[in-house]
Design a protein that fits this description.
- The chain is α/β, with parallel strands linked by helices.
- The protein has a single domain, classed as TIM Barrel, CATH 3.20.20.140.
- It has seven helices and seven strands, in the order E-E-E-H-E-H-E-H-E-H-E-H-H-H.
- A hairpin with a 5-residue loop joins strand 2 and strand 3.
Length: 210
């Protein structure tokens, strides 16, 4: 079985245009506007069939998301999962720093909507992944026993040496940053304080089968 774990789904209900415009500022920063092409489920399925992909794991991709937008995306993703249960799984959108209300939404997404994990940025709220402010979020994830998918930050700060009047920052800074994020998870105390292994969890395995 071939599983694609990096498929962004953007519900058409969000009302954006059909085109995706990419551009770079003079200092090499990447900017883009999103389109509705990622909302076309038939297009997703066609691509999956052409590429030989059995299952795609859907995730959102937000900057400054609101609780309402997170809930709306999770509901839309659950609809697609229900319509195509053998082709799509979902990683819940989440607000790691959102407190009890955000954690209740994560709980709902996993236990009621059937999400298989949680999708976050490598720089949630501008913080590094070993920041103690994220410990309540990790506690919730450990309680639910689901994996976290960490997505690269679009324009991570702290890489001034990679600023250039072309796409150097976009191409390299994100890769340096996601590598640093992985090391912070491994060496910054996260794994020591939250050692639960999801890979052997019968609850997790059951979620993937249903």
């Amino acid at each position: 079985m071939i599983v694609d774990v990096e498929t962004h789904y953007r519900p058409a209900r969000e009302g954006v245009g059909n085109a995706v415009e990419r551009r770079w500022t003079e200092d090499g920063r990447f900017h883009y506007s999103r389109g509705n092409s990622a909302a076309d489920v038939d297009r997703h399925l066609w691509f999956m069939d052409e590429a030989g992909i059995d299952i795609s794991v859907l995730s959102g991709q937000f900057g400054n998301a609101t609780p309402e937008r997170v809930k709306s995306w999770n509901d839309a993703c659950a609809e697609i999962m229900a319509e195509h249960p053998k082709r799509f799984a979902g990683f819940a959108s989440a607000l790691p720093l959102g407190g009890d209300g955000a954690f209740d939404e994560i709980d709902r997404a996993v236990n009621q909507l059937g999400m298989k994990g949680v999708h976050i940025s490598a720089r949630p709220g501008g913080l590094f992944l070993d920041s103690k402010e994220l410990w309540p979020f990790y506690e919730k994830i450990a309680e639910l026993d689901v994996p976290i998918d960490v997505h690269v930050a679009t324009n991570p700060d702290g890489y001034d040496g990679l600023e250039a009047p072309w796409a150097l920052h976009y191409v390299l800074a994100r890769e340096f940053d996601i590598t640093g994020a992985a090391f912070r998870l491994c060496l910054g105390g996260v794994l020591e304080d939250f050692p639960t292994s999801n890979s052997s969890s019968p609850i997790s395995a059951a979620r993937w089968r249903r």
